[in-house]
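Bumping my old thread because nobody answered last time. Still need a sequence for this structure:
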């Protein structure tokens, strides 16, 4: 049971990170190289930077719910399984959740391009 709790908490880290992105990105007002959504297209000018931060935050909130749902729905089915099965299920849930970061980049870059920023 202890390992299941550990893995459940680990699968909640990516949804938590997405929520953190949603909260922090819109508050970053100046172009910088350390924090925020930083790609060459988003750092071209202040307008594209502001748009990218808001779009990234919006996309991360959209993807927060499916990743949270994945953890909360899938993991309880394996609460009484062996440690190795719990570990592999937790691994696969996390890998699927990690795809959301690539989706955020894709969706934000597409929006930047569509708005000619």
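Sorry it took so long. Here it is:
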């Amino acid at each position: 049971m202890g390992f299941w709790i550990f893995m459940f908490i680990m699968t909640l880290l990516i949804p938590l990170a997405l929520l953190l992105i949603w909260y922090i990105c819109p508050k970053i007002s100046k172009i910088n190289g350390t924090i925020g959504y930083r790609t060459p297209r988003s750092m071209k000018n202040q307008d594209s930077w502001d748009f990218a931060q808001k779009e990234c935050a919006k996309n991360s909130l959209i993807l927060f719910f499916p990743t949270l749902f994945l953890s909360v729905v899938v993991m309880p089915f394996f609460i009484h399984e062996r440690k190795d099965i719990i570990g592999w299920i937790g691994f696969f849930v996390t890998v699927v959740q990690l795809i959301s970061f690539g989706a955020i980049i894709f969706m934000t870059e597409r929006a930047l391009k569509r708005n000619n920023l």
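The chain has one domain: 2-28+35-114. Let me know if any region looks off to you.
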